[in-house]
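Cast an eye over this sequence plus tokens and walk me through the fold:

***
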Amino acid sequence: GHSMSDPGSYRSKEEVEAMYRKIDAILGVYLDNADESTYVVLSSDHGIAALNRKVNVNNLFARKGWLKFTLNPETGEPLIDWRNSSVIFLKMDNVYICPTGLAGNWTRCSGPEYELLRDEVIAALQGLEDPETGVRPVGLVVKWEDSEEYLDLPRDRVGDLIIANKPGYGWDEE
């Protein structure tokens, strides 16, 4: 299968518009009962942009031979072979890399093999292309050591790479 999958699991434009109409109605009730000393503040930690395509990053890593897994014969659920896997995407935007395997309590790897593999992962991510549109969904790849400077994220709380998507694309751990 492709790393790009059918957008069917994401909400349609009509569903999103209906949701906003309901929020607007709720907001109207608040405003109808507000006076001049009432403040109404709307905030979003994600903003709004169409999310048309899902990118299964771990499928890319499995095709490259970096992520090893078997399927549970009863449930069809993937079972990660941590000992023999060297790259995995987890926690919304983090890629974890260790050429000697990801089993056990995680500690960051280092050394020439690590740097070589990390560069290969970066190249694979940056080379990912939507087969239908030609768009490259990866907007940004940041190494952990640059995470504080570029993303204001603490180095000790991020994976080996942090990836940001372009509008219209969303990462999926499946």
About this structure: Confidence is low (pLDDT under 50) at residues 1-10. Strands lie at 4-5, 51-56, 69-71, 78-80, 87-90, 94-97, 138-143, 161-165, 168-172. Helices lie at 13-32, 57-63, 112-127, 147-151. The first strand starts at residue 4 and ends at 5.
